Amino acid sequence: MSLLLDNQFKELPPDKSVDTKTFLEAVAHLPSFFDCLGSKVFSVIKSDINGNIVKITAVYNKNPAKYVTLQDILEAEREEHEVVWPKVGATLALMWLKRGLRFIQILLQSLADGEKDENNPNLIKVNVTKAYEQALKKYHGWVVQKIFTAALIAAPYKSNFLKALSKGEEVKEEDCLANVRQFLVNYTATVDAIYEMYANLNAELDYTV
């Protein structure tokens, strides 16, 4: 589980503000997660996450002292862009990034909760499908949905996926899933806080791609 545990998310303060610098450092390591899923179709999500991280980082680097938290960025862009906000800049990039992060969260939580296809317990199609349907599907048009439906069929065996998460090491399933649960504590809190921030600022958009 070293792929995730090596880059754990920090515990949030009581006000649930997300420090921009530490957040960007943590998410920078997440795109490689999609390599563990095998199918090249998931490289689309990987590329999207990478691109959005780059966009947010570029904004942050312009003025780190001003953009201490992610909310600082959204509020500054709301003031600067007014009419076109939130469909602009780092606000838009983070909106899409959080959906990719939610995909990872739901997939890992589903595995940690023991959800599986009783007829094919070593397949993770059930878990990947749940993650896609809850985190991304509503934002994808018909064509993109069809592409991902094909990718779900090609989802790897659970044993291969967990081994990939462990960087190729042979780790007992229960030990790997215990590491997943440990990783999810601060990760889930961070993703939830970002979703809550978007709701509070009325920054969420529902258009499809």
From TrEMBL:
Cellular localisation: Cytoplasm
Membrane-crossing residue ranges in chain numbering: none
Domain (Glycolipid transfer protein) ranges: 18-166
Keywords, in A-Z order: Cytoplasm, Lipid transport, Repeat, Transport
GO molecular function, one term: ceramide 1-phosphate binding
Listed InterPro entries: GLTP_sf, Glycolipid_transfer_prot_dom
Signal peptide range in chain numbering: none
Keyword Cytoplasm attributed: yes
UniProt GO cellular component terms: cytosol; membrane
Family from the record: Belongs to the GLTP family.
Function: Accelerates the intermembrane transfer of various glycolipids. Catalyzes the transfer of various glycosphingolipids between membranes but does not catalyze the transfer of phospholipids. May be involved in the intracellular translocation of glucosylceramides.
Name under which the protein is recorded: Glycolipid transfer protein-like
Organism: Stegastes partitus
Highest classification ranks of the organism: Eukaryota, Metazoa, Chordata, Craniata, Vertebrata
